[in-house]
Amino acid sequence: MLILAIDSATPVAGVALLDGNKLLKEEFSNYKKTHSQTLMPMIDRVLRECECSIDDLAAVAISAGPGSFTGLRIGMATAKGLCLASGKPLVTVATLDALAYNVLRSQDLVCPLLDARKQEVYTCFYDVSAALPRRLVEMSACSPVEFVEQALHLAHKFGREKILLLGDAYYPYEEYFQKTLGEKLLVAAPHLMYPRAASIASLAILKLEAGEWDNLFSLRPHYIRLSEAEYRLGKGAQ
Amino acid sequence: MRESLILGIETSCDETAAAIVRNGGEILSNIVNSQIDIHQQFGGVVPEVASRKHIENIAGVVHRAFSEAQLAYSAIDAVAVTNRPGLVGALLVGVSFAKAFAYALEKPLIAVNHLHGHIYANFLEHKDIEFPAICLVVSGGHSSLLLMSNQNKMEVLGETRDDAAGEAFDKVARFLGLGYPGGPAIQEAATKGKAGQLQLPRVFLDRNDFEFSFSGLKTAAMNQWNKLQRRGQANVYDMAAEFQAALVEVLVEKSIKAAARYQVRTIMMAGGVAANQELRNLMLKKTNEAGLKLFYPSLNLCTDNAAMIAANAHYHYGNRSFAPLSLNAYPSLLSL
Ligand SMILES: [Zn+2]
């Protein structure tokens, strides 16, 4: 069962091709270029090298957010285009779930952090002691201060000795996290800090097997936040 | 020219659109999903809100274009998409979708300049357009005069220095409390008033170039309106009529001047503001007096649509001028 996974939720662009539980190829790029220019050529390289075409796929998977609004839309528009043309199912995976899946079988409280601008982070708290990451709370956008408060609270509540942070929003607040979390703080290894298309593909296979694919005609990214204009109008959540 | 059946995709502003056109002239389907009622509550197009609607609607709109044309996806020869100018976040949805859709179907991809697309709306309805021609493209996003020497050569003669014509309509309409979108609102109000009762400047008309400026006109209208209100003499209908006249006269005079300067016998109008009745009437009168031929699209092809994108792409298809998978979107007009 071939799954093509696409991720452009953060400054990282990633494409992976997974055959069942065998990763065939993964491209990862965290270097300047814009996703709109790099993503399709990456997809083409991955498929070509593995002598596959879109027709050979069982499904296309996409990280559905949270993340950069524009980045999410580039990835999702690409996935929708591939799936509409080919009739393949589109499977979404939450960006934070995929990040948490980078560090499994751990007794720590695992907290992925993505840059949400405006001095905030997108985050969630996970139990990763089993085969799959399990969200302990809802995904949200919050300040680093609120994040640390909640991390300490949840670590206490669930009896976790260590709090493991990963994701690109760790670095801008590194000093603050070191100061406030002290001995409890763990940080993922550099190669596990970022969303990986391979993680998205692995989670997507499970969803596909469970029949959980998405409707191309109504699917939208999981932004968490309203647009500025909607905030000002005081509209309900999207 | 090679035969072609082209899917066009357009997401540069607040319309999610897809169309299928044969040979640049025959519309098989033309789907436009307008977000106008959503942006109305904000008093104008909000880029992030527009992009969010585009990603939600794009697959459905493209699918409908095929089902109305009663075609399978694989029946098309190429996928064309607007990649400039426009709101970048909005353009990126169409560009990303189009690239992937074309790739999965193994069809060539064609990048279309939105401004050129507007001009090609004329070729969907008029089969007897002669070159060279002067093209006036006026909408919420553009006010440009172009010289079109033939199907493959277009040159910008002049552009607006500040607000586009449609933008000026929107801002003044909002200021006068006439609502959004401003073009139709001012046109409607103007029918109840009379131009010439008030005096607004014909900006740049004295200049010997083909540049426009509508920000000065907008400011003059607002200042005069404030004064009139203080004196208790404010008549919104006369103001709307005078504002519309001041804007339309400049557009028409400059187009006629450009035709004379470049010894051109044809004028084409395009873009949302080309739907303005006063502009159509005055341009018809002046082109008749000057012995010029005038073309403009019907109302639904003046505003943003994807049929015009597919129509323009037909000529790129003939030249085999295809875009790479690395195609990007750009806010600016700069030629490709
Ligand atoms: Zn336009």
TrEMBL record, chain A:
Pfam families: TsaD (PF00814). GO terms for molecular function: transferase activity. One of its GO terms (biological process) is tRNA threonylcarbamoyladenosine modification. Residues 31-231 form the Gcp-like domain. InterPro entries: ATPase_NBD, Gcp-like_dom, T6A_TsaB. Keywords: Transferase. One of its GO terms (cellular component) is cytosol. Coiled coil: none annotated. It comes from the Bacteria. The keyword Lipid metabolism does not apply. This is tRNA (Adenosine(37)-N6)-threonylcarbamoyltransferase complex dimerization subunit type 1 TsaB. It comes from Syntrophomonas wolfei. The gene is tsaB.
